[in-house]
Amino acid sequence: MKNLFLSKTKKILGISILLLVIGYFLLAQKPVENPLGLTVAPLILVGVYCILIPFAIINDSKENKESKQKKGV
After folding, report:
1. What residues does each domain of the chain span?
2. Average pLDDT over residues 17-39
């Protein structure tokens, strides 16, 4: 349990959090002032929740299995 998240997973989760902040910021804008709030923000949020975060979780479990096999555990 020393490395809960490896470096590649940390990068993916960091990008995910950044995109979530951007998506919610765009979503909070009034649609009249910012048409991106109606089109791009929902696509960003769905992409992060359905693609990036599950990919980071799956990638982390694969990396943990590979590191355990290398150590012989």
Report:
1. 7-62
2. 88
